[in-house]
Structures
1.
Amino acid sequence: MDLADSLGLVCSLLELLVPTHYLDTDGHANSVIDLIFLGMSCAQVLHYIEPDLRWPSDHASLLVNLYILLENICFSKKILKHDSDKENNFLFSIFMGLCALNFSRLDFVDDLDLFSKAVSRIISNAWDANARNITATTRSKEWWNNECRNALATYRCTEAREDWCLFRSTTRSIKRSFFDDRIAEIASTNKRPWDLMSWVKQYKLPIVEAIQYQGLFCNSLSNLWHALHSSYNVTANHSVQLFILDDILCLAPQP
C-alpha cells in the first residue's frame, strides 16, 4: 500500500462482496482475488464482479466504470508530411547535427551513454522545429485552422443564423486560400500535378507479355488474327499420333 500511495493510487472498494475464484474441487471454498488500484481522482469509484459472465473460466472478471470527460482526451499530435520541405529540413538538421558530433571518444560506457543522449537530443530538436501540431477528429481537414474552429464555436454558442453564415464564409475563404497555396507550391516546387487529385496520380504501367509470331510482336488485332489463322493452317489436315494416350491409366466404367 505504501507503494500505491507513493504513486498516487488508491485501492478501489467492491460494491458487493462475491467470490472471484471458483473451484470445482469438493471441500474447497471459493475465494476472492480482488485488488484494483485507481487514481486519487477516482477514489470514490466502486468496482464490481460479474460471476455470471465467467462461462467455463474459474475466474470472474473485475469491472470498473471510469467516466472520462471529453476535454481530458488528447486529440492533438505532431506530424511531418512526407516529401515536404519540412521533412527535408528535418533530415538536414539531423545530418548536420550528427556531423558535428565527436565520434572519437567512445571507449567507455559513460562516453557511449553521453553520445546516445546527444543523438537523441539532435533528433528531438529537429522534430520539434519542423513538425506541426494537428487536432485529429473524424472529419479532420488539412485546411482547418483555429479561425475555422473559433467561428464554429461561436455559432454553437449563439446558434444564430448570422454566425452560421459567418462560419460558412470563413471556411470557404480558408479553404480557397489553402488550395491556392497548394496549387502554387506544386506548380513551382515539385511540379507533380497528380498530387492535386487522387485519380490522376502517377502510376506504373502493368507488366504484360506480347504474343510473337515469326519473330514479330502481335500489337494489333489484325496481326493477332493473322498469327492465329496461320498457326491453325499449319496444323490443319495433319495426322494425330494417338499413342500418347497409352500412358493414361484406364479405369473401369462406373455404373
2.
Amino acid sequence: MSDKKQSAQAAELPEGISQEMINKAREKYGEEKVKLADLPKDDDRDNYLTVLVRRPDRQVMNEYSKWIDKSPGKADEVLLNSCLLSHKDTVKADDGLFMAAVDAIAQLIVIRKAIIKNI
C-alpha cells in the first residue's frame, strides 16, 4: 500500500484505534474476521463510539454456550472479553455501550444454513 494511501487511512481511523492495532488483529484472527462497530453512546443515537471487534470463533462460542443458561451476564462477559479489541474499559463502564457491544459481536456470528434432503 502506498504511503499516501496509508496516511489517508490512518487519518480516517476513529480515536483509540490505530492502523497497527488493526493489522495485528487481522494477522492474529484473519482479514475478514476483524471489523469496526459503531456503538451508540446515548438513546437518541446522536453520538457513537467506534470500537474494534472480531468474529467469535468456535472456542469462544463453546465458552459462551457453557454460561448462557446458567448466567447470561457471564456469557456476555465471555463474548466481550474475547472479541472486543479496543475501548474495553470504556465499554465495560457503561451499561448501554456494554449491551451495544454484545449486540455488535453477536451480529458477527456466522451460522450457515444447511440443506436437508429426504432419502
3.
Amino acid sequence: MKHRIITFLFLLIFGVSFSQAQAQKPDYNRKGIEVGTFNDLTFSLGLHSIGRVQVLSQDNVRVWDGSDWATPSDNLHGMQTSFANLEFLVSIGDDIDVFFDGLLATQRHPSQWWGNQGYMYIRSIPGNSFLTVLNPVFEHIDLKAGNFFADFGEHQYTRTINADAHRNPLVGNPVVAPLGAEPGMEIIYNGNGFGAMIGGGIGAPEQDFQEARKYSFRSKVWLDVIQNVYLSGSFYTVNHDPGTLRGTNLFRRERHGSSYGGVWNMNNDGSGTGEGPGQVRPGNGRELTAWEVNAILNLFEGNTVSAFFGQGTGSGPDPNTAGVPEGDEEWIYYSAEVRQFLNDNFYLSGRFSSVDYNKFLSSDNDGSIYRAQAGFGTFITDNILLKAEYVYQAASGFNQETTGVANRVDLGMEPKFQGIILEVGVSF
C-alpha cells in the first residue's frame, strides 16, 4: 500500500508543481444535435458509439461459477462488441429540460437495450400555472427529479459511461468509479464560484416497495472561486433493513460497462456472468456510508490534473450473492490523473488508481487492487476521438477464495491483467 500512496502523491505533486490556468466545475451535459423546434420547445438528439480492439492477457485468474472454480482464457485478444448510447432531450425554453437515454448494448448485455436515466431539470416554472408562485424560490435553486445518477464525486462528468467516452482521456476508468442511478430528487444551489446540493432517493436502481427498502441521502458542496482550482466534497448513505432483496447501488452498478472485455470474468458472451469486467465494486450489502473529495487543476495551457480520495463502509455482500457469508466492508479508494495537450488535437495522459480494503467480511481479510494506465488521444474530428492505452492491474493481500470484491474472481490468487487497448469513439 505504501508504494501506491507514494506514486499517487508523486503524480499529484508533479502536476501541481507547474502554474497558471483556470479550473471550473466539470460540465458535461452535452446537448446533442438540435433536430427541431416548435414554439418554445427544442428537441435534441445525442448519439455515442464506441469500437475497441484489445490485446490483453491475464494471470492467476480463477472465477467461482456458482458450483466450482473455473479458469478463463489467459489471452483476451480481438475486437469487442460495438456499444452505443442514445439520448433524447426536450427543452422548454430556458426553464425545464426533460431528458432520457438508453444503452443500446453494454458489456454485460451486448445484445440488449437497457434504460439508463430519465429526469426533469427545473430552473423555473413557465406559463400561467399556479406553480409559478414557486418562481421566487427558483431564483435561488434548481430542482432535478426522476431516475438519474446521484451527484456523488465528479464521475458522471469525467468517466466513460458505456459508449459515451469523450469525457474520459483514457480508455478505461479508475479501478473504482462510483456511478449509481436511482429514482430520487436533488435540490441544487448554484452560487458565484460555489454551490451545494442536497438530495435523496430510494437506494435501489428500480422501484422497490418492500418495507425493508429504506431511503438514501446525499449531499455535495463545490468551490471554484479560487483561481486555477476546483474542489468538491460528496456524501452518501443508505441503510436497508434485513430482508431487502437488493444491495446498495452507488458503487456496484456497472451495467455501464468496463472498457476491458472479459478480464477477471468468466466470459463476455452475453450470459450475464459478472458486471464491469476488472472493476472493483465495493459496498454490495444492505448498508453503505461513503464520502469523497475531488480536486481538479488546470495548471497551464492544455494541462489538467485531477485527483480524488474517498472512503466507504458497509455491510455486505449483496443479499443475492449465494454462498458468500455476511460481513462488513471498510475501504479507501483514490486516483491521480494528468492530461497534457501537445496541440489542439493530440494529448498524452496517465492515471494511477487504487482501492485498499481494511476489512472484507472478516477483520483478518484485507488487501489492495491497483490500476496503472498510460496513453494518448487524438481528435480526428470534433466528434471522433481515437485513444490508445497501456493498462496494468493487480491484486494482493487478500485471503484465498475471496470473492465479491471484483465480481467472483478469487483475489487470494493475486490475479493481474495487462496489455494494450485501442478505442474509437463517436459522440454527437
